[in-house]
Write the structure tokens for this entry.
Amino acid sequence: MVLMSPSIGALRRLIAVCEDYAVNHGLKYNVTKSELMVFKAGSLTYPCIPDVALCGEPLRRVDKFKYLGHWVTEDLKDNCDIERERRSLAVRCNMLARRFARCTKPVKVTLFKAYCQSFYTCSLWVSFTRRAYSDLRVQYNNALRVLLRLPWRCSASGMFADNNIDSFSAIIRKRCASLMARVRGGTNSILSVFVDRWDSPMWGRWIRLHAEI
């Protein structure tokens, strides 16, 4: 569960509601697994953040936490989550290369599509460095080279076209298009407002994906 509020006072009131609910329903929060994170507002910083307590114990403040498998950071950057996906992709690729080295090419292509194209939560990436994004793209390209035992200098676009596999850019565009369609077609009025704003990060990301050469 995640509580979000615009101020420390509001957060304390939300926590009080949760504590009352826990008492009335025989529940108990694990304070050691609960964390506090304060998002940065541009260059604005707070020299002193008051303690926030849960069940009488202060919460540990962190600069990042994982929510449903996605890394959220205090500066709202996606570099950490992109690196998570890059490492995960490297592990999956090495596993496939070791265990299925003697399989036929069609089998390897099928395995690659099943295990190396998920890019979990990539449609949420809107703020990141070019270095982090490029590292993931290179890892994806090299994964197919390793699995199919192709030369390191072979054309990435050529090998994807020859094997009828989506390139890295194609996958990202499809994932973003799917998210946009699901959010715009949903019934949540709050999400609909955000996705239809031309200055929203989602629209900015969508435009950049189709403007990149």
